[in-house]
Write a structure and sequence with these properties.
Layout (H helix, E strand, L loop, with lengths): L3 E4 L6 E4 L9 H14 L1 E4 L6 H9 L23 E2 L13 H8 L15 E10 L7 E5 H7 L2 H7 L3 E4 L1 H7 L7 H6 L3 E4 L1 E4 L4 E4 L5 E4 L4 H15 L5 E4 L7 E5 L3 E5 L10 E8 L5
Parallel strand pairs: 2-3
Antiparallel strand pairs: 1-2, 3-13, 4-15, 5-13, 5-15, 6-12, 6-14, 7-8, 7-11, 9-10
Bound molecules: fe (ii) ion.
Fe (ii) ion (FE2) binds next to loops.
């Protein structure tokens, strides 16, 4: 089956059509999708008709799936531990009123890369809409290969060998979440990653950035934070960014976390329901 890719931005991202998810994705089609994800960084599929089960099964074609962490959440909403909750509903399907959870979700409105706070990185995220608010709640994307290539040469040389420390609780506290509990800290210790990486599948160099990045290893904390802030601001200038609107249930966006950043945007979260479920695929270990 030949896919059609319609670019959504001059520099990255495409809307893909021509995939029949209802019949399971055959190996040739999957290979075309994989190639498109590596090329465009962000691929949007409309009205896939995927269910929890077929979402997980399709995601497994990309590799091993992460399991959603259990902290801070008394009961899971989903039967499957592979599904991360990116919505605003409680386990009974009502709009969340728990301030701590709402605050936790706010962290997703900062530019980030999923799971960069884990030492074993995530390669891909597959976010599937089950219910979308009528207004707001777009997802923004930026391609970090484009950003790296646009950096001045002296900046590239300055950051070449730097390593950043990423900590989930750093981004949550930036968003107003309270100091993490001892259990939360134990559950998610910091991780370290090189700031400049090779995105092997496209052969392009890329920045590996996220609001989870708390400082640069070996640098005074404030100086490192300033650099991280400057790089994120540079990488997310309007001409490098794309806003994707969710049209309705079944919309799926796949992105490559190793070469993109994204953020959620606000919507009236105490008024409208948003049910979004994400699978997250580990980077293959031979990388
Ligand atoms: Fe995210």
């Amino acid at each position: 089956m030949a896919l059609t890719a319609r670019p959504l931005h001059p520099l990255f991202a495409a809307e893909i059509s021509g995939v029949d998810f209802s019949r399971g994705v055959d190996p040739e089609t999957f290979e075309e999708i994989r190639v498109a994800v590596h090329r465009y960084g962000v691929c949007v599929f409309r009205g896939t008709g995927l269910t929890d089960e077929s979402h997980i099964a399709f995601s497994r074609l990309f590799g091993e799936l992460e399991q959603a962490p259990r902290f801070s959440i008394a009961r899971r909403r989903f039967r499957y531990p592979e599904l991360f909750d990116a919505g605003n509903l409680d386990p009974d399907g009502n709009i969340l009123s728990d301030e701590r959870r709402r605050m936790y979700n706010k962290g997703n409105q900062l530019w980030h890369t999923d799971s960069s706070f884990n030492q074993h990185r995530s390669a891909y995220s597959l976010l599937l809409a089950h219910e979308v608010p009528p207004v707001g709640g777009d997802t923004h994307f930026a391609d970090m290969r484009v950003a790296y290539e646009a950096l001045p040469e002296d900046r590239k040389a300055q950051i070449e060998d730097l390593v950043a420390e990423h900590w989930l609780w750093h981004s949550r506290m930036l968003a107003g979440y309270p100091e993490p509990t001892e259990e939360e800290k134990r559950e998610k210790p910091p991780a370290r990653h090189r700031l400049v990486q090779l995105h092997r599948e496209s052969g392009r160099r890329t920045l590996y950035l996220a609001s989870h990045a708390s400082h640069i290893v070996g640098w005074p904390v404030e100086e490192g934070r300033r650099l991280i802030r400057e790089l994120i601001e540079f990488a997310t200038q309007p001409q490098f960014c794309l806003a994707v609107q969710w049209h309705g249930p079944g919309d799926l966006i796949i992105w490559d976390n190793r070469c993109t950043m994204h953020r959620a945007t606000p919507f009236e979260d105490v008024r409208y329901r948003r049910d979004m479920r994400r699978t997250t695929v580990y980077e293959a270990v031979d990388h």
